[in-house]
Design goal:
- The chain is mainly α.
- It has two domains: 48 residues, Arc Repressor Mutant, subunit A, CATH 1.10.10; 121 residues, Tetracycline Repressor, domain 2.
- It contains nine helices and two strands.
- Strands 1-2 form a two-stranded antiparallel sheet.
Length: 193
């Protein structure tokens, strides 16, 4: 039996591992995403993955960030319309990866996209939020999105109509926008006093 040389081993790259993990997530959900299954899909021993990724937690954080960075930028429009589009695009993007609502709740993929403020930060800035008010509004919208993603995943697993198609989702988005509008107006009024 001859020794395995460096040339015989499959070459791995961190991005390839994350993309393959996303495929596994999309195909079988978060419960089926294991380092062992990832190694099998990549054709390497599970231990080889740990050279690039510290563990499943880091892998899930990277996947969450990659999914969040693939949410399209909303078109130029009033901030309220951008928020409506962003919520729907977020649900649609995460919805392509069964169980990914857990990623949105377990890690914070929302804050920065490629080192830049997220779409959500830009939308809220356009609404007039700044400083601590921006962070508070961001937290509120993030909680809303995390909850919506969780409900969307539950509906998917139980065979119910997608949340994005429900009238209640429209009402929830409008309630979020009305609440943020009210807070922004109060902040502007208090800053002029």
């Amino acid at each position: 039996m001859s020794a395995v040389t460096q040339e015989d081993r499959p070459q791995l790259a961190r991005d390839e591992i994350i993309r393959t993990a996303m495929e596994l997530l999309r195909d079988g959900g978060i419960d089926r995403l294991t380092i062992r299954a990832l190694g099998a899909r990549l054709g390497v021993a599970p231990g080889a993955i740990y050279y690039y990724i510290a563990g499943k937690k880091e892998l899930l954080e990277e996947i969450g960030a990659m999914i969040a960075s693939s949410i399209p930028a909303p078109p130029l429009a009033p901030w309220q319309d951008q928020m409506r589009v962003h919520v729907r695009d977020t649900l649609d993007t995460f919805g392509r990866y069964p169980g990914s609502d857990a990623l949105a709740n377990a890690v914070e993929p929302w804050r920065l996209t490629a080192g830049q403020p997220s779409h959500l930060h830009r939308i809220l800035s356009r609404a007039g939020f700044e400083g601590e008010g921006l962070e508070s509004a961001f937290g509120t919208a993030t909680i809303f999105l995390s909850g919506a993603l969780r409900i969307a995943d539950i509906r998917r697993r139980t065979g119910l109509r997608p949340l994005i198609e429900c009238r209640e989702m429209d009402m929830a988005i409008e309630t979020l926008i009305e609440g943020l509008t009210s807070i922004a107006q109060r902040q502007r009024a208090s800053s002029t006093d």
